[in-house]
Amino acid sequence: VIIGGGFGGLAAAQRLRRVPVEILLIDRTNHHLFQPLLYQVAIAALSPGDIASPLRAIFRSHRNVTILMGEAVAVDRARRAILMENGEPVCFDILILAPGSRHFYFGKDIWERFAPGLKTLTDALEIRERLLISFETAERVHPAEACKYLTFVIVGGGPTGVELAGALAEVARKGMVPDFPTVRAKGFSIILIEAGPRVLPAYPQEQSDKARAWLEKLGVQVHLNEHVTDVTEDSVYAGQTCIPTVNVIWAAGNRASPLLQSLKEPLDRQGRVIVREDLSLQSDPWIFVIGDAAYCPDAEGRGLPALAPVAMQQGRYVASIIRKNLAPHARPAFVYHDRGNLATVGLAKAVGEISGVHFSGFLAWLLWSLVHIFYLIGFRNRFRVMSEWIWYYLTYRPGAQLIYGKPRSER
Ligand SMILES: Cc1cc2nc3c(=O)[nH]c(=O)nc-3n(C[C@H](O)[C@H](O)[C@H](O)COP(=O)(O)OP(=O)(O)OC[C@H]3O[C@@H](n4cnc5c(N)ncnc54)[C@H](O)[C@@H]3O)c2cc1C
After folding, report:
1. Ligand 1 centre and the CA of 35: distance in Å?
2. Which of 23, 54, 394, 406 lies at a C-alpha separation of 20 to 30 Å from 289?
3. Are strands 72-76 and 81-84 parallel, antiparallel or unpaired?
4. pLDDT for 318-351, tens place per residue?
5. pLDDT digits over 141-181, tens only?
6. How far is the CA of 394 from the centre of ligand 1 (A)?
7. CA gap 401, 387 in Å, rounded
């Protein structure tokens, strides 16, 4: 049984689909989601279908893979079963847990209502609706009131926050504002709040500085060394400063899936399971935890980063243990092959490194685009994303600016 059809779970299932085993892949959604491009759905540049693929379609021709859409709520280790949300048990011989992570509001869960994070398609669509409704609302309200609709605050200066801020600045200015005459006159602002001394803290200092300079050139106000102390319906507080806004996006903290608590295994501070070097539980060699849900130290003893390549490599590694039916003492330790990192800033610039070589600017962005297109699932999605990007560069008209309903908070 594999829980989670994200990067880790999908990689494991794909490696096992020609092996004589029966696989049950359980996910609460019916699709695999390419999270690295989720922010482009949130800013109305891409449509949900461009970056998600139905799991049943991915495994259509593989008879040993069964898909079950449902929420796993606990692992009953005594019965070797997963408990589903309707109370039904699903038994397993071998279990791979790849349920990923959710946003973490540092104990202030009430903030989630006002500051949605970006993890699922629902999150991205919620943010997109808020963004579009805010522009529409700002068109008709008094200028003094419009300010809170035209101020966008992104909390967290990691890759998600930086990519979101840069792309929002470009798309809003070039692709949306021209259609909103009143907004054009009133102007809008994007504020990126980071608690640390620089954006992209995992990148070299020089690349962080570049990213910050590019963001500022795009009109993003970067606030460093500022902690968010409160978020309400129409404001965010950074230290003593109150910023009136109805648009706060949370990109600041992650916590592993609560499902892992039912394993009763040691967890780290982010709720990740501390696994052995073969990614299995300390107390059960046939239950594996991979991806964002696992704490697996690298050669220097630091936890591996929450990245798609880590999850994919771990999924393939566990699949090879299962394929070879390796006893615990015969398993090699998992080793992560770090091929680099790239983060975009705006629509034609990026920073990062690949195989130890640092890149920045247009070349880095080109590499970023190629890598993302390559890893998208299915030719149709690759073609659609590429054509949407080309269309946008030629016309500055993003293709997904539709409002389907009111944001969850207003329903
Ligand atoms: C906005 C954003 C941008 C990112 N950008 C990048 C990037 O540029 N490069 C990069 O390398 N990484 C990036 N990441 C990180 C990367 O996406 C994650 O590290 C990766 O998805 C982890 O894979 P996973 O398999 O552990 O979990 P996920 O891919 O999150 O998959 C978890 C799956 O489990 C399912 N699930 C969860 N709980 C349950 C349950 N109880 N029952 C049933 N199903 C369940 C979920 O529906 C989901 O399908 C980004 C993440 C986000 C959110």
Report:
1. 6
2. 54
3. antiparallel
4. 999 999 999 999 999 999 999 889 999 988 899 9
5. 988 899 999 999 999 999 999 999 999 999 888 888 888 98
6. 32
7. 16
